[in-house]
Amino acid sequence: MSKIEILAPVGSEEMLRAAVFSGADAVYLGFSGFNARTGAGNFDADSLKEAVRFCHARGVAVHVALNTTVYGGELNGLANAVRAVAASGADAVICQDLAVAKLIGDIAPQLPRHGSTQMSVHSLQGALELKELGFTRVVLARELSLPEVEHITKHCGIETECFVHGALCMCVSGQCYMSAFLGGRSGNRGSCAGPCRLPFEANALPEGKPGRLHHLSLKDNSVIDKLDQLQALGVASAKIEGRLRTPEYVAAAVSACLAGREGRAYDRDLLKNAFSRSGFTSGYLDGKIDGTMFGVRSEADAEQTKKTLPMLRELYRRERSRVPVKMKLEIEEGGEKLTVMDADGNKAFAYGDAEPQPARTDPTESLHRSLAKTGGTPFSAEKIDVEMDGGPWFVPGSAVNELRREALDALLKKRETLRPWPVNEVELPPLPLRTLPPHRTLRARFERWEQVPEQDLSGVEYLILPIGQADVFAVRTQLRMRVFTGHFRNIGRMHLCDDIPLLSVADAPTVEDHQQYFAITHPKHYFTCSTISSTALSIAAWMPSGFLPPAVARKGCPPPPPLMALAASRTTTPALTPCATISSPKATVSVGLPSLIDPITSTIFFERERTAKARSLMKSGRRSVCVAISRSEE
């Protein structure tokens, strides 16, 4: 069984040293301008190369985050960022926007891609979709339980990565728009202001009295004590959250993970003192979701952290000897030669000019001790051979030490050599120009269907209502669903329920040709889809031309304009998103529910109280495409 990787966050050069010196197997860091932590000390093309040299010389992998959604006007900058990452020889790229993933595949097809937790991959179907799209690893949603992690890991066919320590979002990862709505700082663009940490009270408050409780603030996740279980399940990487935190925090978390991986006890209080919000929670992985998961960072927490910092710095003060090497010392009458070689086949040599003297006793043991003193370097002597031609020979310890230092320095420089990924010349297509309609149209927004006027709707292009009002506009009939995908992959015939067939894309008409169709897309929208043929999904549901909302039907008025759902985010959604609700004798199916749609896969996202219905559908081998069962009518 291979060891689970300990993956540490890096938001500055000091954090990089802390992560590596404390024992992390890999680090992840952000490339400037295109990662989900714009407030961290991110890396440009030059500093990224230096970080990769430092890490690779010490046997540590580097994952680069390009995990924001990207606008069309940023594609040239993104392409340059991809080329810079490829030139650095970094080990992988973390991304969430499928258009970004495709551009990486076009420019540097051999550069491994990891699906970010911002993709909200929470199901086996989502992981399988990433595998088909060429991803080599999926960072699973933090909201999964241990059995769910096990099921995905054992059947998806690519590596899985799980968060084991650090902050939790109140919303499902990648689906939160709170910061964007309240302050124009989008979390999916790397600028989350963390408003969920402010006082928001669920209780009724007197008018004018501000809330004091923090009913949106979760404690930090910590499941380090279950690392050995995750390792046994085959999870490839244990990820620590926290690129905006301190080097001391990183060192404490890495040290605890090293112990947890081996099933050893670790100092939980020391970890808590490094950073916590009134303690930790493991509620999601344990499947125990309740009020104990909530917590805030108190003044006492901050004071304890301040007192603990000097102790935590000791965790990364020295270089960790972690790269095994083989040494061979050859001594003959004319001089000495030391050869050192690592597991990758890199070799370095050092030659001595001290003339050996005949020895009265065998010096082999003392030579071994001198060569094994690799402290202060990233190397450890795995095997030492000493060969003496015509000996035994005596060589002063100072001369042997100098040979060791010279050979290990030369090997370190060899290991620092960058190995860039090959790149292709890719010419980005011009951005499509938006054409204005010849006549301006009116779009009317209402809170309830009762507010919609029964007449004078002829000049209105769209009616805009909250998604909760979709039930009022439900189609009480058996409907045929038609599926569209950006890459037009034939998904074959599938069924959500026996009476709602989902047909292959080969049968699907275009929305432009059939005005009865209401197309929907995921609220993130992946802005560059149309530019570089991303695979964002859309779906259309045929509405009978004779169907009318109740109030309109009673008056014999003409059909109203299409119903639309409000866009999920003003900062990340370029247009309004149409939606509809479809009913059958067995279930009501709602399309366009942002909180229930898997952003990249043709699969259902069920709330936990709907898991029984989900399991029954999955056991029958049925899948859905961006839809969610909202109410049983059995």
Distinctive features:
17 helices; five-stranded mixed sheet; alpha/beta; 29 strands; 634 residues; eight-stranded parallel barrel; disordered C terminus; single chain
Structural class: alpha/beta
Q: What share of the residues does DSSP label as strand, in percent? A: 15-25%
User: How is the main sheet built?
Assistant: 8 strands, parallel, barrel
Shape: elongated
Overall pLDDT: 75
- Report the strand count: 29
Describe this structure in words.
The protein has 17 helices and 29 strands. The protein has 634 residues and is α/β, with parallel strands linked by helices. Strands 1-2-3-4-5-6-7-9 form an eight-stranded parallel barrel, surrounded by seven helices. Helix 2 (45-57) packs parallel to helix 3 and helix 13 packs across helix 14 (397-415). The model is unreliable at 472-634 (pLDDT under 50).
Please give a quick description of this structure.
The chain is an alpha/beta fold and 634 residues long.
Topology (SSEs and partners):
Layout (H helix, E strand, L loop, with lengths): L4 E6 L2 H9 L4 E5 L14 H13 L3 E5 L9 H14 L3 E4 L2 H10 L5 E3 L8 H9 L4 E3 L6 H10 L3 E8 L11 H6 L36 E3 L4 H7 L3 E4 L6 H15 L6 H7 L5 E2 L1 H4 L12 H15 L9 E10 L2 E8 L4 E6 L4 E2 L5 H8 L7 E10 L4 E2 L2 H19 L26 E4 L14 E6 L9 E2 L4 E5 L8 E4 L2 E4 L13 E5 L7 H4 L4 E6 L7 H6 L7 E3 L11 E2 L1 E4 L3 E5 L19 H9 L7 E6 L2
Parallel strand pairs: 1-2, 1-9, 2-3, 3-4, 4-5, 5-6, 6-7, 7-9, 8-10, 11-15, 17-18, 18-25, 19-27, 20-22
Antiparallel strand pairs: 7-8, 11-12, 12-13, 14-16, 20-24, 21-22, 23-24, 25-26, 27-28, 28-29
